[in-house]
Amino acid sequence: MDPLTLFALANGAVSAVKAGCKLYKDIKGAAGEVKDVLKDLDDQFKKLHPADKPPTVEQKNQFIREKNEVIELNKKANQGQHEGIYREIGEHLGAYYDNFHKCLAIMEEEERRAEKEVYTGDASLGKRALQRVLMRKQLEQMSVDLRELMVYQSPPELGALYTEVEAMMQHMGATQRVLIAKKMQSERVSELRRKQQMQRLHTDIALGIGALVIVCAIGLTFSIVIEDRIRKYPQYGTNWIPRTEEQRKKDLEPKIYVGR
């Protein structure tokens, strides 16, 4: 898989983690008795819109939507749905680190290959180098953003989840990067071997076609020469091998037919 695809997968996992953290905080914050929260919302709305400044229809509808959202979040919290979101956050966090380390491993292997092989891609070397630098910096910034969000802006259990997953993936990621590099090198050797085999096959096919063309050309030349000989010298017969002098003399001798 190419680094751009892995980068996109890592970015998608980060977005999923951020969305999950927000939903987790909202649901957990709405747990418990909801009456006080709704009463507080009513008091705030009345302060913003006293009798002499009544709210518009849109403002009323927006207020009703907010109250309904609080009620819905409270139901989810009391049903323990935030626990499922907790697991999903962990899965997306693991997916981010998985793609993060794979992306770095592939970029590092490409850099090692660039020192020994001539680059033949469509994009320029400068463009490829710039892409790698930007992706590496963005991946590192994603890690910083996730740490800031989960450790400092989320409930403690999310911070603990981040710390545990990061520690585990750092070890596993380092191992995977070595294995991925070895796999890529092995695949590269196999690809080179396959290309050499295909080149040999193409050469053999070309030689075979060339030999067939030569044989056909020789046969056609013989055929033209023989047809010309038959036309100009019919006494030699119509066979490919001309008749000998003895055969021609024998043909000129009178035929004696013996009856029964």
What is the element layout, followed by pairings?
Blueprint: H1 3-29, H2 35-48, H3 57-78, H4 81-114, H5 125-152, H6 156-232, H7 245-252
Provide an overview of this structure.
The chain is an all-alpha fold. It has two domains: 3-198, no CATH class; 205-252, no CATH class. The protein has seven helices and no strands. It has helices at residues 3-29, 35-48, 57-78, 81-114, 125-152, 156-232, 245-252. Helix 1 packs across helix 3 (57-78), helix 1 (3-29) runs parallel beside helix 5 and helix 2 packs antiparallel against helix 3 (57-78). The longest helix has 77 residues, at 156-232. The mean pLDDT is 78.
Number of domains: 2
Work out the helicity level.
Answer: over 70%
Q: Biggest sheet: strands, sense, closure?
A: none
User: How much of the residues is beta strand, in percent?
Assistant: under 5%
Shape descriptor reads: elongated
Order of helices and strands: HHHHHHH
Q: Could you tell me the radius of gyration in angstroms?
A: 42 Å
**What structural class is derived from the secondary structure elements?**
mainly alpha
Detail the poorly predicted runs.
Answer: none
Number of strands: 0
Distance from N terminus to C terminus (CA atoms, Å) equals: 93 Å
Mean pLDDT: 78
DSSP summary: helix tally = 7
In short:
With 260 residues, this protein is mainly alpha-helical.
List keywords for this structure.
mainly alpha, single chain, 7 helices, about 260 residues, 2 domains, about 80% helix
